[in-house]
Queue: 2 jobs
Job 1
Amino acid sequence: MRNIHGMQVASELAEFIETRALPGTGVDADQFWAGMGELVNGFGPENRDLLAQRENIQRLIDDWHKTHRNHPHDHEAYKTFLEQIGYLLPEGEDFEIGTENVDPEIAQVPGPQLVVPITNARYALNAANARWGSLYDGLYGTDAMGSKPPVGGYDRGHGSRVVARARVFLDEAFPIVGTSHADVRRYHVQDGGLLIDDQPLASPGKFVGYRGNPKAPDAVLLRNNGLHVELVFDRAHPIGARDQAGLADVVMESAMSAIMDCEDSVACVDAEDKVQAYSNWLGLMKGDLEATLEKGGRSITRRLNADRAYCAPDGSAMTLKGRALLWVRNVGHLMTNPAVLDQNGDEAYEGLLDGLITVMIAMHDLHRAGGNSEHGSVYVVKPKMHGPVEVAFTDRIFTKVEDILGLARNTVKIGIMDEERRTSVNLKECIRAAQNRVAFINTGFLDRTGDEIHTSMEAGPFSRKDFIKRKGWITAYENQNVDIGLECGLQGKAQIGKGMWAMPDLMGAMLEQKIEHPKSGANCAWVPSPTAATLHAIHYHKVDVFAVQDRLKAGGRRAYVDSVLEIPLANYRKWTAGQILREVENNAQGILGYVVRWVDQGVGCSKVPDLNNVGLMEDRATCRISAQHIANWLHHEVVTAQDVMAALRKMAVVVDAQNGDDPTYQPMSPEYDGIAFQAACDLVFKGRVQPSGYTEPVLHARRLELKAES
């Protein structure tokens, strides 16, 4: 550790900052460290007080539920109580956000959004490069059309179905006067217009560019609802050679934005881990991040894609960005990290460190040609904030960060994750608290469910997880997020987002169901992979999100807090022993499958097979739900501690078998005494007393324990 400006800073973090991150920013090292000292030591006590306020409010809610547990729920009395303790605040007068200098990927073009762990350079590059993706590949390699292709080489029958399905998409998004894309033999440019077998598009303005010879272009660029589609022609290509028009691929503009995650999908517990995360963010912001991997017996190096060059219809040069607009998700207010100790020798709050360091690193991008932001902005998602006072605290943190780094006020734009109940019920005032920075709000229904259980832990046993999702509170929550976002003027200035599709192998189901997100008025929604982004982009061609938003505003729909405050308790509790056991085992299997990789391997986001061997994307939010659900049933004696331990041991055997092909995997059975298994037990048996039901304190402590032993 090094003693710097009243702090103890881990040597590897100090070296990274001084030798790699700061050079080129124009920020002096002494200026930076002095600023960090002011941030850590000046804002730390207030951070601690805000966390104490969370715990005090939770104690009051717990006591209220204990007092009223044996009485019918009185909604009005409950609501009045929440107002009296400052949990539910009055809505102020109407306003609109004043956020400026927002890039078009956020303000003007609805589309898919990726979230990836920043600690994995390959994933980070894949996400950044997912701005463009092959529709042919997305349809061919998944179950998007009902089934995957047969095992082996290229299957022409399946390929023909892909081509036909892509032509249907083109007919829907870019209809031609008097014919179908399936029957076209020639696409060419004449007098600044696109002719297709000598017929124009029904909407000629959707033709926006081309590449190559206008008489026989290599590519034709179309645009619908703000999203681009590139038709690639190549008669030497195996697909193009068999196509009457020579069409070899349909390339979709896909992930308009991507979140590089320092939070829920990573396992960063010390300076070593934080340097890895910050190093990859630095590579993205400087544009020089690389990742080498073995594929097909050869070494491949991945880099950030270049911009894409075209001719405009009038023949002038034009370019489109080749990469998604990047956000960085910082850690919330709860966790500390031993990478930096404050003046009292206590671990510094990790969110303060992330705020300063990730913004400083982003300064490499602010004036870089072809960089992330064309408007000089830095985009930071701030998760797990509880209510307006914590959003206001975040706003002041970034004001301080801008002052330390010499940046103009409101350079930093923030995303508010609407994933904690106290934020949901006060969303309008949360947005007001950072009204000149807000560029994103998002319904994080996974963490939101975990917080729903923890907040009302003492109210009674909750429904089974699948039934919680069917209750009215979640629809009210999702609607209110959009309604308040529009009411606060986010349309055309910011993203209104929806949550993750958690089944990356079930693209057919995603194509059927996830269209509901743009239909709801959300102009972005999370997907688990670049392929999913390409397929989800189809929905934004089918749905004009801004038109939906206009109808919502004109129609006057407004979801209100009363429905959001409904508690999804199990009113009918005549479960069979088998139903109870199945629910507990399902939760236990998900917890163990995730935690064993988190603790033993430092993997913060995993595709974990469930009991039916369906791969589910698991991160700390999904783990939080499962742990809190078992903790709730334990507390209300729906299930015994002995039954839970038996389920954990039984499911440990299942998880061991599911990971049998991983040579680095350490089995939990038959001893059940490893650190990972103990972490899972802590999450369940100590879940009720974890701050806000979060998993981080247990996971960090157990991961540090394992690293110390190693």
Job 2
Amino acid sequence: MAKKLSKVPVVVVGMGWAGGIISAELTKAGINVVGLERGKERSTADYFMGHDELRYQHRTELMQDLAKETITHRNSPDQRALPMRRYGTFIIGDGVGGAGSHWNGQTYRFLPYDFEIKTMTEKKYGKGKIKSDMPIQDWGITYDELEPYYDTFEKMAGTSGETVELYGKRKNDYPTGPMKKTPTLEVFEAATKNLGYKPYMVSSGNLSESYTNPDGIARGACQYCAYCENFGCEYGAKADPVVTVLPVAQKTGKLDLRTHANVLKVTKNSTKATGVIYVDTMTGIEYEQPADVVVVASYVFNNAKLLLTSGLGEAYNPKTGKGTVGKNYCYQVSSGWSTALFDNQEFNTYAGAGALGMEIPEYTGDHFDHKNLDFIHGAGIRMFQYGNRPIANNVVPEGTPNWGPEFKKASIKYANSWLKVASQGASMPHINNYLDLDPTYKDEYGMPILRMTYDYTDQDKALVKYMAKVTNKIAKEMGADHIITAGEQGPFNVNKDTNTHNTGGVIMGADRETSVLNSYLQMWDVDNVFVVGASAFPHNSCFNPTGTLGALSYRAAEGIEKYLKDGGSLVKVK
């Protein structure tokens, strides 16, 4: 029997970017918030001199323990799903800050095209352009409506960048200038300019200069130490909930942050959510936390799982197309890249940062003609200088033996003599790509674990073939002596594919028949539940999701304030 606690106005499940932004905005408005995080407390002190590739990159210390809770995966509904036992295709953060502590910092806005993708595609190419097995829909909000929230997120994070003409209009420039343009990036810049493209420095959550945000949070500039993704930032230069929004919420005295608190379900009566049940993972004691509003902000997979295990909303059925919870799970398409190797040229690739990069905009969204193509949307063609660490850095030309003296010789020769022209493609929904509860496997608390049914589609494969030609052309223009190009997209492999951008499953939209949430990320069916995060995306763009997640989180916080002020009802969408 769970121990019942005193009722609070708002309980937030998950203390990453979404939960941190919600907590900061509500507590600044004078609203008491209980924040529940299943992992431990974290601070920059935890990462001092923590440049340990084995510990963080390969043994994934900041991530969820897959021995206690994982997901199952299958490529199609007619297969048996099996548990994911080691991290490969994505990594799930654990602890205060969540994925916001171990991300790279790449901070994009989605395109105006993304938010009205169905309308714009059909208007330009006709209704037949979108295949019947792709349940693409508009988001229920436009870019122009979301732009002020993007601006708020960027000012809070101190995002460093430069304006790109082809993208949506901006009210303000980025609060800090772009990161350093290194000699490595200048190679990409020169090649793409020679080909007629307009390369730009990628917008970054790694500060290019010292910055104080509107909340008075001061942070120092990036040191280009090369330890960003899978690592916490010891300098606080990388935008992280732990050094931005959470200190603001804690300073108000209105945030009750409880760590080691794993939420098992959302409780409800006939019409409303009444709170949550969580277990203290240190003692094993279960608690019931009643609340007027429940905010589920616990990453894509757990957001969907909590709704499904709690009986909130109708589960998606791929056979009938009915139901919305679990629908439109999307990923991203990372093949199509080309690696350029140079026989007589070396680069200082040991230094870098998670968002130190350049990109060309010409192949994003609908910025090129899709009339005679077998896919819609596009890809970001980019080069990043993350900083090559020794364990994972082992690139050799094709045809080199996989072991032995020749392999060792080539590994040493090309250690600092290769550059990657990457392609990150958009992911469109498919009727057979979805999330539900596994009927066989359970977690350590006896709850069903989440099952992912997902594979790359014909749309994805066509996009990869097209983008591979672009990246190969750029690699040639860079003067490469050897080029390795990933020109074919094979089946999805949960243990190998390397993009970490999971989206969908609890999607937003303009009506309850095709979506779970309105544009304030409020559930249509249970109006005192807000589900915040990339789980709300009806499809995934070709850009990293954090900037859009942050913007939607600020809008959701505004919706929660309206809900509490107005006495409880569906928030009127503006």
